[in-house]
Amino acid sequence: MSDAIPSPPADPADRAPAAPPAPLRGPRSTPEKAAGPRPAATGDEERPASSGNRRRRGSRGGRGKRPQADAAAGDAGEATPGRTERPKAARSVLPDSEIPDLPDLPGEGKASPEAAARALIKRPKIGDSRPAPAIPSPRPAGGAPGGEDQAGDGDGDGDGDGDGPARKRRRRGGRGRGTGAGKALGGTPEPEAPVELDEETLERRRGRERKGKPVGRYQMCVHVRPEATQIAVLEGRSLIEHYVSRPSDDATQIHGNIYIGRVQNVLPGMEAAFVDIGTPKNAVLYRGDVQYDAEDVDEKGPKGGKDNVRIEHLLRPGQTVLCQVTKNPIGTKGARLTQEVSLAGRFVVLIPNSSTYGISKRLSDEERKRLRRILDEVRPTGQGLIVRTAAEGATPEELRRDVERLLRQWAQIEALAARSSAPALLYREPPLAVRVIREEFNKDYRGVIIDDPQLFQEVHEYVAALIPELADRIELYEEADLPLFERQHVHEQLHKALDRKVWLPSGGSLIIERTEALTVIDVNTGKNVGKSSLEETVYRNNLEAAEEIARQLRLRDIGGIIVIDFIDMEIRKNREEVLKLFKDCLARDKTRTQVFDISELGLVEMTRKRVSEGLVESFSATCPSCNGRGIILDEKLL
User: Fold this and answer.
1) What is the C-alpha to C-alpha distance for residues 253 and 329, in angstroms, rounded to an integer?
2) Pick from 605, 637, 391: nearest CA to 517
3) Virtual CA dihedral for 54, 57, 58, 63, nearest 10 degrees?
């Protein structure tokens, strides 16, 4: 069969003059293509002049296209109908590497060779990444570099050279990272017009002042740098809390964010499901955090009833769920989710599609009755509400506006979820500074000092809209000679908090050691030798240790199981006094704790809810030499 296809001549001049050029046609409509296969040609028989247009099989380009050399020969003279072919033995056959590819004949409705080449080069490949289609960014007419969002088509409208509109292509496969149909809601709240209050109400909420300056137990310092934002909370001059926020924390500091996720797998033995929400690690959704309608469940557990429905009957792989993060991913563990979504405002917390209704127990009975009467009027139908401690003294207008703002926010989240594809971020919590001020700032703070003008403007507008009586306590730090943390003596206290040894005022010390399972705190007398007796010396040393341990737990944000080894005391009353002081100091900590009595060995066992990785981990990285063990093995002895 290969003998029936003559090789192209070595020189275009050796070709026979072609017939007069026919009207241009597409390569698929040439007579040669339509006629089907030709019989093998011999050296003695004649063949039409158009047979010179045959291309070598396997070469690139369309077959049956008219070469430019034949077109030039056709213009020079007429075809000779009776011309005989040259014997095959006399032909010059070139190697495949030296045979030139003939150019394609431009046809109707076909892009130019240059445009087609660019379209082939810019075609997306497996493994290419592209920005999420939900957040389009302004681009030039030619598209993104690499042509990942465009591809050429047959009519030349999207060949990637800017001649026509780009056609977006969606890469299939792979785990998306927060793609959706719209930008996530949240962030810094839009400033609203403050509620008009009478002078008496403002005076009552403004707090105490001395010589024209506000007086309070706490102070907040916000230090902004390009690589991180740090917030320090001082009680007097003592550092009690510290927060760090980095731009890279979008995938780890996600507490309170709302996602639309996709169930990856369901584990009946763990009574949990792993959900892809677009973060590096899948989040976990436990059976107790799943919201469902009992009428929609056909199968129940062995004992029956609503509480015995198994998780495999509620969720299935590939199912889309709306969920909220209740715990940040820590270490090797992913984030924890719940389907009971809640939106926090300044005075109330909205729980959509729920019958939950409650008021903070920290408020007095009279205040709780007053707030209950107000909530009966402003509570929306079919929505749950929880009144926060900050609502003490709030007017009906303030509570109504807070509820209406949260309802508008939830309506926007539902609309975004309806047009988004999982996994996608629907709602993002405000920045760290705004979030901490929303949760903690009240009249007990004598001020909030911020050293960044832009953040100061955002925070001041937010506080002026929600807490107008405290707006004058937001200050801008403008001293250029000394940083804010050094002026407020935060810098040296941070260095001490990162050390494993903490000194007590009387000369005693604490040794804080963190392990995989728990944290151990050892109390020592150190340089404290006392004056009267051993029991009195130990008792006074343990009192100082109890107060300092409560502060270190808040400052270092230590969570999990904690074991404290106090120095043994013989008198039972002394042990009870130390434990009472320790519990009173922990009561000022907003993180939930549980403390047990002192054992016979002088040990106190307690638990503290783990919210983050801790202060030490936020300022450090694992040693690459020892992998965090703190020792290097002697390889010569192994």
Assistant:
1) 8
2) 605
3) 30
